[in-house]
Amino acid sequence: MVAHLLWILAIYGIAVALVHILHARRHRGGSPNRRSRMHYELITSNHERQVEWYLRALSLYALLSGTRVRVTVLDDRSDDDTMVIVHRLVNLSGIELHVGELNSDEDANKGMKKITSESDEHFIRIDLRIPSEAVRIPYVQG
Questions:
Q1: Which of 48, 46, 44 is nearest to 79 (CA)?
Q2: For the chain, percent helix, then strand, then coil, each to nearest 5?
Q3: Positions of E strands within the chain
Q4: Which of 123, 121, 101 lies closest to 112, judged by CA?
Q5: How confident is the model at residue 119 (pLDDT cuts 50, 70, 90)?
Q6: Does residue 26 sit in helix, strand or coil?
């Protein structure tokens, strides 16, 4: 019985510490040029097994860091259910999700220049067709 009581107190203490840490991170005085909005552009092609985890990892990152995250998923002619899964996750909390199709690399580069010049977002393009690019997503290991 004493052991159960100690476990309850330990879990309560960890929860209190976590709340204090998250509160301190949210109200920490950041530098004025720190960007509070991130824009991830994910280029997918037959990634039905990974795309849900990638989007959930970005959602978790947004919720824990307090950063506003916008995600644009551009699909390069997937033959599987990648886009079905992405459309199902449009209302995922913490991120603003946009879906499109990748027409050509030239069109994608024009879109990137337009987005970065018109806003104060920090833009990160991740081409998931290259296997090593996925590690650039927060909370995703290679």
A1: 46
A2: 50, 20, 30
A3: 37-44, 68-75, 95-101, 122-127
A4: 123
A5: low
A6: helix
Range from 4-18, 50-64, 67-81, 110-124 carrying the lowest mean pLDDT:
110-124
Q: Is 118 found in the same domain as 51?
A: yes
Pair 12, 71: CB distance under 8 Å: no
Distance of CA 39 to the CA centre of its chain: 9
> Which range of residues forms the domain containing residue 116?
36-136
- Cα–Cα distance, 103 to 129 (Å, whole number): 15
Global confidence as pTM: 0.68
Who has greater pLDDT, 34 or 73?
73
11 vs 14: CA distance, rounded Å: 5
Total domains in the fold of the chain: 2
Residue (of 16, 72, 2, 18) closest to 44 by Cα position: 72
128: domain CATH number? Answer: 3.40.50
Whether 66 is covered by a domain: the verdict is: yes
With 90 as the cut, is the pLDDT of residue 118 above it? no
Q: How far apart are CA 46 and CA 64, in angstroms?
A: 29
